[in-house]
Amino acid sequence: MERKNLWAPWRIKYVQGLSGKTSCFLCDDIASPEEDAKNFVLWRTPEAIVVFNRFPYNNGHLLIAPSRHIAHIEEATELELTALMRLIRDCQKVLSLAIRPHGFNVGMNFGRCAGAGLPEHFHIHVVPRWDGDTNFMHVCGDTDVISQSMTELYTKLVELSQKNNLPTV
């Protein structure tokens, strides 16, 4: 049987980032609002930020994080917790309008052992799901197939956010 490869060169940045580097991309790499489109920052509020996951499990995978650099949920204020929950709702709304998923996974990982890729900055994952989207590629090949470019979806979500009075950058 001939072996075939599925190339995913964008993942090298993630793999290289596992070297124990202590910088926070939410604070350091995307701190400048002038570069939000380049950095796939969808929304900013005084309390929180919504950004595309650059290493998504599925098309439209978003991260929601407090604007403050805090590692644990118990460090969040009531205002921040309320803002984060509202943003989960708003992310589901705009993603539903844009790509019509059948459902969502919403989750948090605390600590590297629990799967947190950025344990120093508490964040929430919003992952659109479709019936049958966990297929042989993920189950057998530990490979995720993303069906739309981040740039295309980012543009669509910004447009829909503006039309539906959702938070904008």
Any key phrases for this structure?
single chain; 169 residues; alpha+beta; HIT family, subunit A; 5-stranded antiparallel β-sheet; globular
Fold and architecture overview:
The chain has about 170 residues and is α+β, with helices and mostly antiparallel strands. The chain has one domain (about 35-165): HIT-like (HIT family, subunit A, 2-Layer Sandwich), CATH 3.30.428. The protein contains 4 helices and 5 strands, in the order H-E-E-E-H-E-E-H-H. The protein has helices at about 10-15, 80-100, 135-140, 150-165; strands spanning about 40-45, 50, 60-65, 105, 125-130. A 5-stranded antiparallel beta sheet has the order 1-2-3-5-4. Helix 2 (about 80-100) crosses helix 4.
How would a crystallographer describe the biggest sheet?
5 strands, antiparallel
Question: What series of H and E elements makes up the topology?
Answer: HEEEHEEHH
| Fourth-tier CATH superfamily name | HIT-like
> What percent of residues are in strands?
5-15%
Rg over CA atoms, rounded to whole Å, is 16 Å
Mean pLDDT: 83
Our count of helices gives 4
- Category from helices, strands and their pairing: alpha+beta
The amount of helix comes to: 25-40%
Q: Order of strands across the widest beta sheet?
A: 1-2-3-5-4
Global geometry: globular
Low-confidence parts, pLDDT < 50 over ≥5 residues?
none
Characterize the quaternary organization of these chains.
Answer: single chain
Second-tier CATH architecture: 2-Layer Sandwich
Please report the total strand number as a whole number: 5
Q: Which CATH class is shown?
A: Alpha Beta
| CATH-defined fold name | HIT family, subunit A
Termini separation: 50 Å
Count of spatially separate domains: 1
